[in-house]
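Listing S7. Sequence submitted for prediction.
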Amino acid sequence: MVFLVTFVCYGSHLPGDPRGSSDHVRRGHRRFFPPKPGLENYCRRAMNEPAYLLESPESREAVRTAIVDVCGFRRWFLYALHVRTNHVHGVVRADANPSRVLNDWKAYATRSLRLSGSVAPGRRIWAGSGNIAVIKSSAVLASAIRYVLEKQGEPMATYCADERF
């Protein structure tokens, strides 16, 4: 199956923030929550440590390299990847449960950041969840790759398996 995988850095997109937020998929539907400053403030006060961002090009490159490596190791085909300061988007074909893909990406990226000395041991890097959408057609696949590579602002740490993009 082919997936669009998205996950964010710890504390960088809290429920209720001005962009809005959504909960986990329940019964086949994802619920969107409009901005709620009170909810955002509550969630910020509940955080155990400050928000984390991938502020340096080296930290974003470490995450990019780790995800490319895990895809190679697992024999998953990585179509596109974009590591931003506060989130990661990727499109991958994997013969695995989508939660396995998300968890492996986060685990390899975390290990890479810790080994590079960018992040202290025990420091939270990622929000607890992520979003995984199944891509069911070649048209949606092309659109997802474009979204990941071209619709995120100035390119940061990117990867693309297709020279057309």
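Caption to Listing S7: primary sequence and predicted structure tokens for the chain studied. Residues 2-160 form a domain with the Alpha-Beta Plaits fold (CATH 3.30.70.1290). Residues 57-74 form the longest helix (18 residues).
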